[in-house]
Write a structure and sequence with these properties.
Length: about 775
Amino acid sequence: MASIHTALSPEVSSSATNRRKTTPTPPTSRSISLPFTFKSQFNALVVGGSPLLGCFNHSLVPRAVATPNSVLSEQAFEGLPLHQDDDVYDSESEATNGDELDVSKLGLPQRLVDTLVKRGITHLFPIQRAVLVPALEGRDIIARAKTGTGKTLAFGIPIIKRLTEDDAGRSRRMSGQLPRVLVLAPTRELAKQVEKEIKDSAAYLNTVCVYGGVSYTIQRSALSRGVDVVVGTPGRIIDLIESNDLKLGEVEYLVLDEADQMLAVGFEEDVEEILENLPSKRQSMLFSATMPSWVKKLARKYLDNPLNIDLVGDQDEKLAEGIKLYAISATATSKRTILSDLMTVYAKGGKTIVFTQTKRDADDVSMALTSSIASEALHGDISQHQRERTLNGFRQGKFTVLVATDVAARGLDIPNVDLVIHYELPNDAETFVHRSGRTGRAGKEGSAILMYTNSQRRTVKTLERDAGCRFEFINPPSMEEVLESSADQIIATLNGVHPESIKFFTPTAERIIEEQGTSALAAAIAHLSGFSHPPSSRSLITHEQGFVTLQLIRDETYSRRFLTARSVTGFLSDVYPAAADEVGKIHLIADERVQGAVFDLPEDIAKELLSMKIPPGNTITKITKLPPLQDDGPSGDFYGKFSSRERFSSRDRFSRGGSKERRGGLRTSRGWGSGRDSDNEFQGGRNSWSRSSRSSRDDWLIGSSSRSRRPPSGTSEVHASTAGDQGTGQPTAPRSRTFSMLMLLFGALGFFDRYWHSLYDLDGGDAVADLRGNSTDVFS
Ligand SMILES: Nc1ncnc2c1ncn2[C@@H]1O[C@H](COP(=O)(O)OP(=O)(O)OP(=O)(O)O)[C@@H](O)[C@H]1O
């Protein structure tokens, strides 16, 4: 078997490219399906940079499988060992394999190797290894791998190798040199990240990142100084092409990163426009988590006999294996208090990303947390500069909780995120996988917790099926667990105190221990944990301190009337009027065989009530675990309603005019603070909930461009279809009339299309730029 070194030698590689450019393309496309788990891949490849493990050849080198739809391409693995027998462990081949993945043994340019090793990248990850040879052969590639598995360097390493070798012997670039590499990314953050990955690996190449939301001036002058690699979002790239600042006539390598996300955020036209501008003789690599028809079309039209490299394949499990999944049932009102306890117990002071559906929720949750935990919000209404500051601060650990809309779900590579919390259910399994994939990256471990209300139970099951995962269902952390975790965190902090400081305080410590013994230290830990006062009891419903949750069960033989919240209050006022006055949340038990309810009372009132004589046939008890409750919040969720297909088709109904709106449009208030707000939502019914939530969903389009050249699109057709088929329930008549009238009014003003886009998370900044009369810099 040829060594990879030979396979990757410059001569071989460049001749492959030349061949590709001059010879006719082979008649069939080929694909490789690599069915193996990522846990084993990472175990085998790199565990914190440790030497390769014994299971190496079980996992590292998957058996390539020919399926009816894919033809095994051994050519792509030229120079790489293909083991036919998974079960045979062979230490000799382990050594060989280890060498062949060792970045210093791949024939890569020394300076690239040096920077990779300095960054702790000593061995290739599977997707990198799978892409490397065909990429160096000049093949067009379509690739897919799980989150956090190193896709950026999968295209980065071969491209850097090429540019470096071609540059060797040449003097440094001249001013005005045109880019040879173009990387398209769907979001600004992702573009910046790709830029960073390339710069960190090859600082000697001139890499420029262009994206909207910031001034053109710096980007223009960077391009004019000469550039090797341009990374950018499609909107700004088109702007720069149109202003003649960016010329793509010398692009040899095109990378489409997160291609399916381009579609999801409405960049399809822009991407195609850019591809039309590229030289036809080029190498293209397309990375996509899914293959919606537009991406397939793109591949057919713009890629040349692409090789498919799919490291996910038909595996049910779409998540990287280091991610532990939990699900927790919470009422709409208890989510907030449970949230901080979950972070205390499951993140243990490490980094957490909390995902909300709406920008408003992201702000509210972040604000509410700030009193106890340093946290920041990240969503599309936040200026680009602030978003960058926020992400940098989070990366550097200046604060530990990032509350984000799905703007942060894709692609963001933040090291060492310990916990992801789905504060609201994701729209679809894909979003769930990407949100969760912000933890457990590069073979590390992490946890993801899904919060759901009782009415969303079925959706959780659907999600399990769609994402091919299993949740461990957990209860809200008990006070003991919270105290214990808080104490652990304090101890970890104490362990970091500088010895010099300790010396200074030692005499005092000795004196106090002498006087008070260990309780002195316990008091210090309690105080630092924020528990200077003993924790009071907590409601199981709202998790609010000072409340306890009681359960009332009525024996059917005494009364056949259905229990209602009103009858619970009536019962309480008969037994103990103070309890009726003070009762908090009341929820009916979901079990139809039981006539029962749970309700909150202040601790002292509950104590009184429990000591009273209760009318026969009724039982009141203090409970420690909630039974399943009747719907406590909005009955619906977004799951499935914004599946890719639906989103695409809804977008397809619109012309691609300048109807992008970045803002929430009409928004009914959706606070989560008080129970009252939540009740109102509930009483407002499914329709009002859906509408209010959608309207403030994050229609961010982080990489959008507000190109004013786009005329506003016509909307009349849209009015008819949207009004007709988008309500998830029937609004009450007056509400519906008011809503229709409002819509007519907005439609007449030309706003409706934008509103519609904002409702459905469609992209764009144009409309808002237009609305506000802002310059393109603000939203582009
Ligand atoms: N061979 C390697 N060894 C060690 N670390 C690596 C290696 N390759 C990449 N990494 C690191 O792994 C992390 C994840 O990489 P990257 O962001 O490219 O993943 P991804 O597959 O694009 O993820 P996503 O699908 O979420 O966008 C990065 O911090 C990157 O620097």
